[in-house]
Write a sequence for this structure.
């Protein structure tokens, strides 16, 4: 399976990536900052699209092509300083519905709250130690 995927913030293309693994696994890596994945704020994501390719070579070619044609906000690697002078046949991207998004968002919120409570407890300990 050779896939390109687009992640949108509103109507703006935020990121274009490639993968050989299931898209849900790759998205989880983005949202939970797994090694080698660009961190993406799950709460900013409004739409995800994907396109399948027959070969790895086609996937790589179109990744570079679309990064330089569409200029996604978060793609800095592989972005050339000049403009394309070639055009490839367009690829059809279809919307990807991830049934885990709400569960993941709830998990992110719980983790943020856990860290907030931990920081508050740490401040109280420091305050009590300084006053005692």
């Amino acid at each position: 399976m050779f896939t390109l995927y687009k992640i949108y913030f509103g109507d703006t293309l935020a990121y274009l990536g490639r993968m050989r693994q299931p898209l849900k696994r790759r998205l989880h890596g983005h949202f939970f900052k797994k090694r080698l994945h660009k961190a993406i704020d799950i709460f900013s994501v409004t739409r995800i699209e994907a396109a399948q390719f027959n070969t790895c070579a086609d996937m790589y070619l179109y990744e570079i092509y679309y990064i330089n044609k569409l200029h996604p906000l978060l793609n800095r690697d592989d972005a050339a300083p000049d403009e394309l002078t070639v055009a490839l046949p367009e690829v059809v991207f279809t919307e990807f519905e991830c049934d885990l998004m709400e569960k993941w968002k709830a998990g992110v919120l719980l983790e943020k709250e856990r860290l907030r409570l931990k920081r508050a407890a740490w401040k109280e300990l420091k305050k009590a130690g300084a006053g005692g």
About this structure: Residues 15 and 72 are 5 Å apart (CA to CA). The longest strand covers residues 2-9. The beta strands are 2-9, 12-19, 47-53, 94-95. The chain is about 40% helix and 20% strand.
